[in-house]
Structures are given as C-alpha cells and as structure tokens.
Design a protein that fits this description.
The protein is mainly alpha-helical. It is 56% helix and 1% strand. The protein is globular and about 55 Å long. Bound molecules: zinc ion (2 copies). One zinc ion (ZN) binds next to helix 12.
Length: 322
Amino acid sequence: MTTLTTSEQPKTGGYVAWGPLIWIAALHMGALLAFYPGYFSWSAVLVCLIGHWLTGGIGICMTYHRLLTHRSFAVRPRWLEYVLTFIGMAASEGGAIGWVADHRRHHAFSDEEGDVHSPNAGFGWAHMFWWMTPDITSRHTPEYLDKWAPDLARDPVHRFLNKFPAVPPLMTAVLVYSLGQMYGGLGMSWLVWGFFVRTIFVLHTTWLVNSATHVWGYRSHNTRDKSTNLWWVAALTYGEGWHNNHHAFQTSVRHGLRWWEIDPTYITVKLMSFLGVAYNLKLPKLTKLGPPATDATAKAIKAARKKRRRNDEEPELVGAAN
Ligand SMILES: [Zn+2]
Ligand SMILES: [Zn+2]
C-alpha cells in the first residue's frame, strides 16, 4: 500500500457502524455452513444463482445504481420503482437513500479527498472497511442524505422503505427456507445457499466495483479518477465492471460500450423498454468513443503507480484511447 498523505487518510473519529457490522459478520458466519456437505443440494445452488441475479443484478446494479443514483432511465408505473427498490434492499446493502448518497459522493470526489471509498486509502478500505468505520463527513445523518439524495429523501415511500433495511433480507430468508421445505425438506439447504451464500456472493461482487475496478483493468477514457474496465468484475456484476466507461458517461444506462463489453443490465433495461415499463433511456454520444483499449493502458497505469511510490507524487494517468 502506498504512503498516504494526511488529506487522503479517512477521519473515522473512532466511530464504528456496529449495526451493519454485526449483521454482515453474522451473514458471513451463516455462509460458513455451506462447508457442511449435508446442506448441499443442486437445487439450492440454483436458488443461490437466481437470488444473486435478482438482488444483485436487478436490485443493486440496475435499480440502486442506474435507476436511483444516476436516473439513467425511468420506469412506469411509478410503484414499480418501489418494488425494485425493495428487491435491492434484500441484498443487505442498506436502504436505498444512504446507498445513493454514498455513490453520488463517490462520483463527485472520485479518488480525491471526500471520496467515500477510494483505494487511495487501501484496497481493503475501498472494498469493505469504508462502511464499517465511515469518514466523519460521510455518516448517514439526515443532513447528509438531504444533501446527496434530496430527490429520494423527499419521497415519502422511499423514506418509509429506508427505515426498515432489515425487513427485505429477513423476508427472503423466511421465503427460501419455506420454499425449500415445501420442495422436499430442503429448508436448511436453501437457507444456507439461497440466503447466506447468495448474500455474501452479492456483497463481495458489488464491492469489487469500488475496489477492483479502481485498481486493475484497462482505461478507455482519460477520466480524472482511476476507474478501470475489468471483464471479470463485469461478468460478476451484470455489466457494472465496465466502470471506466461509467465514470466517463455517468448518466448513460449503457456501461458496456464496445461490442465485446457485454452488459446484461443494459440488455435487461432494453427488454423492459420493449415491454413498455422502462423509458427515457439515456445513452452517450458514440462519436466520443476512442479506439479500443489495449494492455498498454494497464501497463501505463502500473508504471505510473510505481513512479508515484518512488516519487510520492501524483502522476498523470494516461488512457491508451487518448
Ligand atoms: Zn455510478
Ligand atoms: Zn467508481
């Protein structure tokens, strides 16, 4: 890890977010039950994968991120937005208002002082430590939520949903256990794989967007942050790993911009648009696209980071596309 300047070091003030910390730790403990062979069943693995797509792909990537944070498309009827938000809450990443506020702040200060989860403060910080001991300026006070997510904070239904972040996860736990029991006495198997393992899988894959795609991969666009495009994170997050494209065109509903940058979330929104429930899809001006990125981009970033470690100064990161 590079040496941090005082301004980059998060100021946690000794505060620990005990509620989320205990909840996420308990989920990890529950997921360890997957090592017990008696709880394994192929049907439970299928439930895990479907739940990962539903809560991670539809709930977090499509709804929390592209719909609520960036408003890169809209849905109708209006109540559909609340149903989708409820599905997102089942991912155990907290209520939508706090999530949206943190992410908008990430875009406002990407990899600079004020970014809630920049890997400048370490890979582990960007991945998960940032929410355990948040910087004093990014605690979820009413003022913080009003400032960064005023549209959601003013919406009475979103405000109501935001008060009960534990309800959707607990409901999914009861649901998968009950369905497993009905399917053939597989309640515990479905609970372990369809709830605990699924939730941990969703949490770490979505956290990789904050950590891995600000560290590894290639850059197609010379954005002022260190965001990257990384195929394996994109595969795990339904297209969210094309993160450098996203930082370059933040309101675009489409993140995978080249033919081989497959973006399942965009395909889903297009399908919803075809069905008439999604509209006002925002897209980037394709004329702005540069030539395809190459490995040289990643090498340039690596060399620049080495230089920074030697000189302890910020280098200019140059994308191959520019
Ligand atoms: Zn974003
Ligand atoms: Zn980012």
